[in-house]
Amino acid sequence: MHAFKQIASNNDLQAVVKSAFDTDFSINGAWGYTQAQATIIEENEHTLPLSQLEHTLTSMRTYLEMNMTLQKEERYGSINVNEINREELKTDELIYHKVTYEITAMKEDIYAAFISEYKEGYGKEDFDLNDHFKRRKEATLNRVLTHWFEVGKVI
Fold it and tell me: Mean pLDDT over all residues of the chain?
C-alpha cells in the first residue's frame, strides 16, 4: 500500500486552489486531515450544495496528494472520489463535517496501457473483455480517507 504524504498548509488554501486549479473558493485553514486542521469553508456563496463543495475540495486534495506532488512515474490517474460516510459534529462554538471518502485510482502509465489495450482490442473476437476488466480492477488502488470541514458557527 502506498503511503501518500499529507499536503502541507501555510493557511492559504484559497491561493493554492486558485493557483493549482484556477478556482476561487472562500476557504481557509488546512487540508482537513484532523479536526484541528479542518478546511474552513468561510462562505458558500457558490451555487454548489455544501456536500458538493466538500467533495470538490477533497478531490483537489486527493489530486495534489496522488498526482501533482509526485514524480511522473509515481503519479496516479483515473482518480475517483466517492463519499461513504458523513457526520456532523458541534463544539460549543463551531460546526464540523467529518466526511469519509473511498478513493480509487490507478498509476497513470498502467491506466494509459489499459485504455490503449481496450481501444485496440474492443470488438475483436480474441479480446477477452472480462479478463481486461478483471486485470484493471486488480491494478486499481483503493484507499479510504477522512476530510474534516469547519462549516459554520453554532448560534
Answer: 92
